[in-house]
Structures are given as structure tokens and as C-alpha cells.
Write a structure and sequence with these properties.
The protein is of the alpha/beta class. About 30% of the residues lie in helices and about 20% in strands.
Length: about 475
């Protein structure tokens, strides 16, 4: 068997890992690369393999950096099966449509400036037609039920295990037969954290011989997930004292629902005044509806609240906004409010416009609650947190950062260094022949590589993009 690392190698976004077995090819994830627009545009248009030669895609979860380039596969000739959990399939149905819509709208906005400057224009990677066609290829598979991948003659069987990262997220265990050799191959997808709200904790997939593992926070330690509510309360109290708007870039899947859940608990116990809360994202609104359909993913606390009739994703001072004109009216709203909007890395969507309109006032707050990839606007905001006089580029224009910036890593849905070590500790290390670290900045991968080596794992490597290894 051969592995080719086609994305998220020594970086976080654009997860794509190609396995070749007995002359057949299966792709683990097909994510969009997110970063500077020109660079991302080029990377996402050019696969490191021929999509027409793919037999199947095994998808770990619906986040755009893992699923967002699937429509481009169709556009390039892929017609095989796409395997996913039912919740992942349902999320992809709306997230990929939203991705096509945002690309079209944002590129129109950027191209106005390019036309004025006589620069080459961008085109969307894909449109709604490609999204509709790729969705026809999905096959839904539940957790912990082994299935055979079509076209592999029984030589590739897959089992999904709950990853506890977002709704429907899965670790992937592949039971492989090649000639007379059989072995088990693991792919973590993105591993969640113990004690996150709403979702169940990650399962254990059982022992494996080889592993592709994420390493997003391989060298960092988060604040504990149980501190999420108290940390959010403190930030809001400090922000309310300044009297401005609180802008929260948040991924539509997972992070938005977690923040709403946390706010609902704070309001219920009277810890905060009931200021207006706006979730300004059609996608987030639709995702919250999908959450309500998949109780199989919920932890005991959330399930118990739902059984009691509690709307865990709604409360009296919360408004979900879909209409674009209503979104624009938030720019003229006076007084205290919280605006939660996507995208989580501030690269596209309504959040970019809210940042442009609010970043220049010292009364306002920008609250970062998720990972920010290098070269994204979100990362530049994090880097500006403790620096006076920083300018950031928003929709092609320079803006001085005056708003107060907070970063809460307790809301992270990625396991940190200690949690990853604990995760690996459940495996029999004598059976694990090789670990490949992906989906992490290089310094984080090196830190996790060192930690795993100290803990006795035999061979931990950090592949480069485009590199191939044989098993």
C-alpha cells in the first residue's frame, strides 16, 4: 500500500490523504486550503492526483477544511462513492452549498477592486451544480458498524468511531488486506476534547498498526473545557463595561452551538444581563436545526435537557438572522450586543463585514474562540491582540485595530498536547509501527513528535506535502 499526503501536511488546512491499495485509490478527506486568497485559489484548483482515478472518498467530518473541495472533485471527473456518517452527510448538504454561495459573493466583491486596478479576475472554484452532483454520491454509515468500500473486493473495510469534535465527526479505522498481509490503519480526523458541551467524548477505535494523526495543538495546552462558561462570562463582563459591540467569529458547525449553549446557561442562572445576542449566519441557523435531528451524537447532559423540553440552542434574547438586509442593519444598531458570525477564520462571509465596520472602535470587542490558520485574517487578529497600532487588511482595505481582542482557547474543539498524549495512551504502542503527523503547523508537529517519542512510540514522522510512503 502507498500513502500520498496531498494536503494538511505541515499545515492545518486542506486535509487530503491518498491511499493506493491493490491498484485502487481511496481519498481520506477532501478539504479546502484556507489562507491568502491568491495562494488558496491556486492550491484548491490543483489536486496532486487525478480525481478520475479515485475509487472512493472516506470523509471524517464536515468542516470545510476536510470536506470543502469535494465539489471540485466532481468538476474534475470523480464519480465514485463518498462515505460519511449521517450527520456529516446532512451538514455537508448545507455547508457545501454555503461554500459555493460565499465564493460567488466574495469573489464578486473582490473582483470589483480587481477590475478597477486592471488585475486578473477570480472565478469560483465551483457552483451549486457541482454541489448538487457531489451530494448524490454520499453513502451514510453509522458509528461502530464495519462496512466494505465498493470496488475494493472486500480488501478494504472501514469502521467509524465518534471523534467528539463536531456533530457527526469520526475517527476512521481501516482493515486492509493486501496479498497475504492484513493490517489495521487508523486516521484520527480531528480529535475532540473530553468534557466538551453537547457532544459525546471521543471513542477508542481499538489498536492499529499504522496511524495518520492530527496535531493541531501538539505543543500547546488549553484551558480546561469545564472553564468555558466562566471565561466567557469574564470577557463579556469586561466588554459590557466598555459599552460596545462584541464580535465573535465562530465556525457555523460546533463552535456557534457551543457558544449559544454556554450563553443560555449563563443567562439562565442570572450571571449576565440579557443583552441582545445575534447569530448572523444562514448556515449557523440551518446547522442548529440539523443538530436537533442527531441526538445520537449528544452527551448525557444535553440529552437530559432535551428530554426535559429545554431548547438548548435558543433563548428569549437570541435572534437567528438569515436575511442579508437584516444583517446589514446590525451595522446601525446602537448599544450593547453580541454578534456571532461565520467564517471562523474570518476569511469570508458576513463576519468579514462586521469586522470591517467594528474593528476601528476601542469600545468594541473581538472574541476569538477557535483555531486560526496562518495567513488568515483571524490569525492576524490574534497576533494583533497585544500590539498597538496594528493594521490588518479586510476586503482589500487597511484598517487600524482599535477593538479589544480576546482569545479563549477553552472553546477549542481540538485535543491539546496532553489530551493527544492521553488519546495515544489507549493504544498498544507495541503494535503501532508508524505514526504520521498531519493537520498541524510544523512547530506543533515537532512538539508532538518529541512527546510521542519520549512515550515510547517507535516511528513518528512528519510528512511533507506531496510525499509518498509505502507500507
Amino acid at each position: 500500500m502507498k500513502i500520498k499526503f496531498c494536503g494538511a501536511a505541515r499545515t492545518v488546512t486542506g486535509s487530503q490523504h491518498l491511499l493506493e491499495l491493490n491498484g485502487k485509490k481511496v481519498l481520506l478527506d477532501c478539504g479546502l486550503y484556507q489562507g491568502k486568497r491568491e495562494k488558496a485559489y491556486d492550491i484548491n484548483r490543483n489536486f496532486l492526483f487525478d480525481p478520475k482515478e479515485l475509487d472512493a472518498v472516506v470523509l471524517s467530518h464536515a468542516h470545510i477544511d476536510h470536506s470543502g473541495n469535494l465539489p471540485s472533485l466532481w468538476k474534475a471527473g470523480f464519480r465514485g462513492d463518498i462515505y460519511a456518517t449521517p450527520a456529516t452527510r446532512d451538514l455537508c448538504a448545507i455547508m457545501l452549498q454555503d461554500s459555493a454561495h460565499i465564493q460567488t459573493r466574495d469573489i464578486e466583491f473582490v473582483n470589483k477592486r480587481k477590475k478597477r486596478n486592471h488585475e486578473p479576475l477570480f472565478k469560483p472554484l465551483y457552483g451549486f451544480e457541482e454541489v448538487r452532483n457531489i451530494m448524490k454520491l454520499f453513502k451514510c454509515m453509522p458509528y461502530q458498524k464495519k462496512f466494505s468500500v465498493n470496488g475494493f473486493g472486500g480488501n478494504l473495510q472501514v469502521t467509524y468511531y465518534d471523534a467528539g469534535h463536531i456533530l457527526g465527526s469520526a475517527q476512521v479505522a481501516l482493515d486492509i488486506k493486501e496479498g497475504s498481509k492484513t493490517f489495521r490503519f487508523g486516521f484520527t480526523g480531528d480529535i475532540g476534547r473530553p468534557h466538551l458541551p453537547i457532544l459525546r467524548d471521543p471513542d477508542h477505535m481499538g489498536d492499529v498498526n499504522f496511524m495518520i494523526s492530527e496535531s493541531t495543538y501538539g505543543g500547546r495546552v488549553h484551558d480546561k473545557a469545564i472553564d468555558m462558561d466562566s471565561q466567557l462570562q469574564k470577557v463579556l463582563e469586561e466588554s459590557l463595561a466598555r459599552g460596545g459591540k462584541i464580535i465573535v467569529p465562530a465556525f457555523s458547525v460546533g463552535r456557534t452551538q457551543e457558544i449559544v449553549f454556554s450563553l443560555s446557561k449563563l443567562f439562565a442562572k442570572g450571571a449576565l444581563p440579557r443583552i441582545p445576542i445575534f447569530v448572523d449566519s444562514p448556515l449557523s441557523t440551518n446547522v442548529s436545526d440539523i443538530f436537533k435531528l442527531h441526538h445520537e451524537c449528544f452527551d448525557s447532559e444535553t440529552s437530559e435537557l432535551i428530554t426535559k423540553g429545554v431548547d438548548v440552542f435558543g433563548f428569549s434574547n437570541l435572534t437567528y438572522i438569515k436575511d442579508v438586509e437584516e444583517s446589514k442593519q446590525l451595522n446601525y444598531l446602537k448599544g450593547l450586543c453580541v454578534i456571532i458570525s461565520a467564517s471562523g477564520m474570518c476569511e469570508s462571509g458576513r463576519i468579514v463585514h462586521h469586522l470591517r465596520n467594528n474593528i476601528g472602535s476601542e469600545k468594541n470587542t473581538i472574541l476569538i474562540v477557535g483555531f486560526q490558520a496562518p495567513e488568515t485574517l483571524g490569525r492576524r487578529l490574534v497576533e494583533a491582540k497585544d500590539t498597538q497600532g496594528t493594521f490588518v487588511r479586510v476586503l482589500g482595505e487597511e484598517h487600524l485595530v482599535k477593538a479589544k481582542i480576546y482569545v479563549l482557547n477553552s472553546f477549542s474543539a481540538h485535543a491539546d498536547k496532553e489530551e493527544l498524549i492521553e488519546y495515544f495512551g489507549k493504544f498498544d504502542k507495541s503494535k503501532m509501527e508508524q505514526v504520521y503527523l498531519v493537520h498541524g503547523d510544523y512547530d506543533q508537529q515537532q512538539a508532538l513528535q518529541s512527546a510521542l517519542t519520549v512515550h515510547g512510540y517507535k516511528d513518528v514522522s512528519i510528512p511533507e506535502k506531496g510525499s509518498e510512503v509505502g507500507i
